[in-house]
Amino acid sequence: MPRSRRWLAFLPVPLADGTVVRGMRGLLLAPQSDLSDRVGPSDRADSSDQAGLTAALAVLGARVVHPDAVHPLLERLGAIPAGPRALLELPAVRATVAGLTGDGFGDLDGPTDEQVVDAVLVLVTAAVRAGELNPGDLPWLGDLALADDTGDLTPAAALALPESLAALWFSEAEIGIVAADLVARWGADTLTAVGVLSGPGLIRAQDVPIEPGFDAEGLGGPTAELEGWDDWVALVTDELDGMPPGAVLAELVAVRDLDAVRRDSLPDVVAAIAADPVLRPALVAPARIVADGQPFDVPSYTAWWLRTELSPSPSSAGPAAEPELRALLPAAPEWVTRLDPAVQRALGVLSAVADLDAAAVPAVLDRLADETLELPAELLITVLARVAVLAERGLEIDRPERIRVLVGTSTTVVDVDRAVVLEAPMYRQRTDLGDQLPVAPQFAAALADLLDLPLAGELAAGEVVEDDGDAGDAGTAGQRQPTAIELLRLLPEAPTTWCEHDRLLVDGVEVDWWVTGDGPEAVVHAATTDGLALGLAWAAGRWELRGLVAGLLAEPETVADVMIDQVFSAPRPPRSPAGP
User: What is the dihedral of CA 525, 528, 529, 533, to 10 degrees?
Assistant: First the structure.
């Protein structure tokens, strides 16, 4: 600014509260408003020269330029234009609301509580009309004391509109009814924007720190209204294997006061949440946690709360679920199964073992340990495979005391200390190592860590011995034999030789086959033809071909047919769309 005009920045400027200041620093330019009819009766006699927002801002002590003094030059000199929402979020406004005494008498030298409440509602009405404020956007407004239908002052967030669905669904011991004259004076849109319920209520907030007991600025942060918040944080922390420092919830969108819903009204409330485009994301969309710039998606608070409330188990089986799930999980409530699939999934209704998530695992393991349950081996294997995948992704649980294991091709329940995780098929022959939990090799270590169990390879020394008692290493035990050329055509990665045994002992236990070493150093030991087929397929990394290998050992002359058929084993390409 030219030196000759710097004096303009120190012009006296009248403010909305009637004072005059010099300088533009921190001054706001409020929008014009038509809300003069909203000013409380106690103000009207004194406010002939004030209108709407001007009177409200004066009561709240905001440094806002008087409407009669607004000029384009003021903005050029440093005053800041502010819409109704920005005015509402001024620290002075929030501090004034937080300082309400709640007994109907304010500071004798300042505005009364009634005047402050009226002023806040004026700003809220302006923000709602401007499309800048929706219910739940500013949770702290729920502390605003409003009269209920008995005349008592109650926080807005603990009130419902008369004859609304909220009045029907929420417990009257927890949620009162707002005074009818307030509804007539301010309207439902303004009252719901400060937290009065018309149905399920929403809370929104940005960048919420994820730590137990967090209370934003000591002023009743957004999570203060969410029952069980610390329990949800603890669950998320377990899923992430520890909460990263500085983690924040990028956007909190949650349904509040679910603990105040009447139990018999819960189906209607959930259906309303699912059908409302504003509320629905709080249930079906994951919560995104950001730490060190990395995003992590976890189940939302609302989904978690409802899952824990609907059933002792956080997961349930749908009517068309796979047999494993119907055996292991309680049936979903009938009313839940009428909801759409996305909502059912958010509420923990599962249809396939692949849907099992971290929240469901403890209940599943508890049910597996029930000795009255009859579960075939093939179903146990499917469930173990899913638990192992979740373990690889960082799942943590309390170690169970009892666990279901394989005994041959059936299952039984044993003390967990008797179990061992099998990471390779040759260990199935070693019943001396413990009761068996077989799982895919790439997930075996994760499952063993999850259950605090040993791997079979950690217990087996793997000492190969001939039946004459002479021990040998991979190069000397047994008689070296060349691998048939027909087998190498099918399994080019297989060892070119193998060791033949009349009777094969490993660590003193008789077995049909064994593989020592890995990769190019692998050595196959076999005492039977079937054992040789298994050993070569495993050493070659083509376990799925073990049946074909056994067939070639029995009929080497069929190698051409086998190789021709293998041409068609590659994944089929997707079909092209039909032409016109």
Answer: -40
What pTM was estimated for this model as a whole?
0.72
Q: How confident is the model at residue 42 (pLDDT cuts 50, 70, 90)?
A: very low
Which burial class, exposed, middle or buried, applies to 20 when counting CB atoms under 10 A from its CB (0-12, 13-18, 19+)?
A: exposed
Structure tokens belonging to residue 304: 């978690």
Count of CB atoms within 10 A of residue 212's CB? 13
Q: Give the CA count within 13 Å in the CB-facing half-sphere of 47.
A: 24
pLDDT for res 84? 79
- Under 8 Å between Cβ of 524 and 534: no
Q: Considering only residues 80 and 534, tell me which one the structure prediction assigns the higher pLDDT.
A: 534
pLDDT in tens, 232-261: 888 888 777 777 778 899 999 999 999 999
Strand partners, 341: none
Q: Where are the alpha helices (DSSP H) in 347-425?
A: 361-368, 377-392
Half-sphere exposure of 231 (CA within 13 A, CB side): 8
| Average pLDDT value for residue range 126-149 | 91
Handedness of CA 40, 44, 45, 46 (dihedral sign): positive
User: What's the mean per-residue pLDDT of the chain?
Assistant: 84
Dihedrals phi, psi of 370, to nearest 5 degrees: -80, 115
Nearest-10 Cα torsion for 547, 550, 554, 557: 70
Residue 115: Cβ-neighbour burial (10 angstroms; 0-12, 13-18, 19+): buried
- Say yes or no to pLDDT of 403 above 60: yes
For the residues 3-15, what does the mean pLDDT come to? 58
Task: Please name the helix (run of DSSP H) or strand (run of DSSP E) that holds residue 530, with its range, or none.
Answer: helix 529-539
For 44, residues 6+ apart whose C-beta sits below 8 A from its C-beta are: none
Q: What Rg value do the Cα atoms of the chain yield, rounded?
A: 36
